[in-house]
Amino acid sequence: MILRIRTIDFTASGREIVRLRDVDTAEITVGRASENTIHLPDLAVEQQHLRITPQPNGELLVEAAGTLGFTLDGRTSTGGAIDPERGGEVGLGSYRLEIGRADDGVPLITVRQITQDGGELKDRLRGFTLERALPSRRIMSWAALAVILLAFLAIPVWSHLHRPEVEPDSGAHGQEIGGNVLMDASWRTGDLSSAHHGLEGQCEACHTTPFVAVTDQTCLTCHEDSFDDSDHANPQRMANGRAPFGAGEQLLWDIAQVFNKPGPGACTDCHTEHEGAGAMEPTSEQFCADCHETLDARLTDTALGNASDFGKIHPQFQALVTPTRGAEAQRVSLDDVRGDFGGLKFPHDMHLSATNGVGRMANRLNPGDGPLDCASCHTPTSDGVRFQPVNMEQSCEGCHSLVYDQVGSTFRSLRHGNVDAMQADLAAADRAPRHPVSTGRQRPGMFAEGGIYYGNFSRVSSAGLARNALAPDGICGECHYPATGSGQLAVVPVVQTSRYFQHGWFDHNEHKQEDCTTCHAADTSSKATDLLLPGIAICRDCHLGETASEAEVPSGCAMCHSYHPRAGAAPASQSRPIQISARDPPRIANRAR
Amino acid sequence: MASRVSGRANKRYAVDEARRDEDHEGFLRHKGFRWLWVSLLVCLIAIAGYAMADVRPRPNGGTWMGYTLGTVGALLIVWLALLGIRKRNMTAGRWSLKAWTSAHVYLGLSLIVVGTLHTGFQFGWNVHTLAYTLMILVILSGLYGIFVYATLPRAIAANREQMTKAQMLESLAALDRQLETAAQPLGREESDLVIAALAADPFRASAIARLTNSYPRCRTDAALKGMASSAAGEKVIALLRKRRGQLAQIRRHMRLRALLDIWLYFHVPMTIALIAALTAHIVSVFYYW
Asked: What is the ipTM score, two decimals?
């Protein structure tokens, strides 16, 4: 069979030399040896590398002569048939044998050498990876590094160092005012508390000097009038009262001081910021317990009981009471209290009874309202924290009438609270024409004048009324004690204490869901001197220490106490923001009365 | 005597086998998961410390526990990033690259726990959360890397069909040379189609095209569609089909390589970005101390 072999060579100058020859053979051999039909001078080619045998159906069978294979259309192979009509390419070493058909129909084998540049191939192979499709990791890394360091470090630092010096301004209504440092909002670790919300954008107001912690001095820039060094206790006594640190705590403080943290006892120890919007986090009871848990061991002369946890270590409450008539008001533990003299005779049990005369009278005067209850006399203050003093005219006089005369349809009452006016009214009463007591008609028999059942409804002598007013059954003496010594008609002043606990805070409003009698045993109290205050045990039904998970209301010290006491102001509540009342409500209402 | 010889052979076999096993032990199973246990221990200590530490008023990065966890985390991040330097020096033994890589993987995973506890679960739009987010993204990309390193090489080997990448290209080149010859009798329009197909570089493909293996504007496909059937056309069409098959193999390889490599394009730049954000995070905290 005739086959045409076309050999393409290149001269040194790169010119192509094409040689054509026809061979008529049953088998074409290909290899490095010169006796082969196609001689390929390439060391990568075997001496006898492959045989090409024309088949009866016109295909050319290509087989490896030795063990080394070749590539057939680029794929490694040791044998295969190529139809010259369809074409195919055999590769061995650097040579390619392209099999096809010449124009005259003779099968054509074109032999050419491929110059393969190793470096170029390597470069080509890189195309398989993503390197070609994406920017280099190095460039991306440098870009990210530069952007982040510039935006989040260089700009804020530069801007902080070159900021204009201005006074911090917390805004007219606490609204946020932008600061003078660029991009430092990206450093904010959390929102400020509502108290400092106006400073939200002005980090430099507190963070004044680079790498220096916020000091007490910084806080006092705005709070200089609010506190002084000794508002909690004498600084020297506080220093003496603080328990020595344990090893772990000492280590932490040592490390903190290496980093220039102020303290212990610095403002920022208790008042942590950037804890999120809303009220500032109340101070943990541990801060108080650091000193107060074993205070008596270090301050042996202290009047304060040890306290560390409301449920475990806390002294019994001390109430401000007047133990006996004429005594000075003093704070007495509820365990030791004998009574509280308020200058009034008032049995709570009698007034709260539903079955006695009081109850029936209340029923008759206010049908449907039932007997008296606490709210009949006790009205909360507007903030609901405490109660207004009981007012005689509103609460008592409905039953305890001071009417002494009727003129026409007008009832004349004595003026409560003013003895001189009372005496003047009574004296004047005798001079006025009065409604006759008897009609002049006689009653018969033993009911007649002189009979044993004669009722002598004579005129009330106003002078006698005044004279007997302070007797135990007298119009005043029924509720009041007569004041002695002045030689004049007078009663002992009434004191209604509106706040018994001077250093603790109790908010009635927060306890509205409880009945009054849960804490105040008024329904069994028969004397006005009974101090109807609940002891710590009753509070502990619901309130235990901050960490007491079993408590209905875990309660830290700050729920009732304030480190910086401000008279009349609630401590930092755990449920509500601090409310500083504009005016100071009187601590003891009516004391001067 | 024979038993002694066979005994010695057995022993050598066992030694060889042991060595082979050790050689074949991947970085994940290195030394019986040694670093997995170390990492779990680190997590356990961090969680126990977080749970037991009485920090006030609430856990966050600014408490003593927060600073401790933050310091551990920052040191870990720096050490983990050093793998980029370490991997360029291969050594064996205790500090072999395999041991280092194993520790890199497991200690890197423990950073999820250490880093998250350091935040005290407080997040915001700030450089601190940026650093945390970058850290998590780096870890997630690393997890993806481990996953593909474990699964894709088998698929790549299967796709190769005993061919090297050079052979795939050579095969394509062989087909192109034949196409060039076979297309000689074609008319202008069809010739242009063949020229376009031959000129298209298979590697001129976007990252998306590589990852999805989707080439809607493939010139070879277009040439096949536009080719009229004629005697000369038949041969060219057959060659174009072969070319399409070869291209498909190359493109599958490119897809698998892209899936295998893509994580590093996130892992490495984001690690550098993380180091930058971490620097800004630490400096800013002390700057506004």
From this structure: 0.85
